[in-house]
Amino acid sequence: MGNTPTNTPAPALTPVVAPKTNRIGLQVIDYRGGKTTLCAGCGHNAISERIIDAMYEMGVQPERVAKFSGIGCSSKSPAYFMNRSHSFNSVHGRMPSVATGAMLANKNLIALGVTGDGDTVSIGAGQFVHLMRRNLPIIYIIEDNGCYGLTKGQFSATADLGSTLKSGVVNDLPPVDTCAMAIQLEPRLWGGRFLATSGSFTPCSRLPSRTMAR
What we know:
By secondary structure, the chain is α/β, with parallel strands linked by helices. The chain has a single domain (39-147, 156-213), classed as Rossmann fold, CATH 3.40.50.970. Helix content is 29%, strand content 12%. It has helices spanning 43-58, 73-76, 95-105, 117-122, 125-134, 178-184, 206-213; strands at 65-69, 86-89, 110-116, 138-143, 147-148, 154-155. It is elongated and about 95 Å long. Mean pLDDT is 84; it is low at 204-214.
C-alpha cells in the first residue's frame, strides 16, 4: 500500500514583542553605563539605579546630560550610568567649579553632580557653600555614608556623634548637616531650590524625578 499523505499543521509563530521604550524611543539599556567595581550591596549602586530609572521614565536625552564628580567611591559611580552622556571626573572637592564653568559655556546642558560626604563637606566645603549661594542649576547628589570608604573607613565630617569604627574608636565630634547648610544659604531673591533626603536602601526613584522637575 502507498503512503497516505497527511496534512501537518504549520508550527505556530511566536509573536515578536517589541522592547519597551520611553517617550523618546529609548530603552532602559540606553541609560546604563559600565559594570560597577564597587563592593557588592554598596548603596552607591542603588542610587545609580534610581538615576537610571528616573532619566528613563522622564525621557531625558542622554546626550543633553553632563555628569560631574570629584574623588571617592561616590564619584566613581557616574561611570556606571548613562554612558552616552558627557562626563568629567574632577579633582578632590573641586567639582562645583568645573560644573560652574561647563554650565556657563553651555546653558542647554542638564548638569548632574554626584559627590560624597568627604568630597563635599570636608575638602570641598568651601566649594559647596558657594555652589549653594550662587544657586547653580544643577542636580547635586551627595552620597553620604559618614565615612571615607575609599580610604578604609575613617570618619567623615557627617559621621553621627558617637559612631564607632571597627577598631573601637568613637566619634566625639558633631556632624555637619548638609541639608541645613543648603537651606541656610538659599538665595531668597531667586528661590526655587528643591532639597530632599532619602536612604539608598529605599527605591525612591521619584526623588531624582522631582528634582529634575524643579
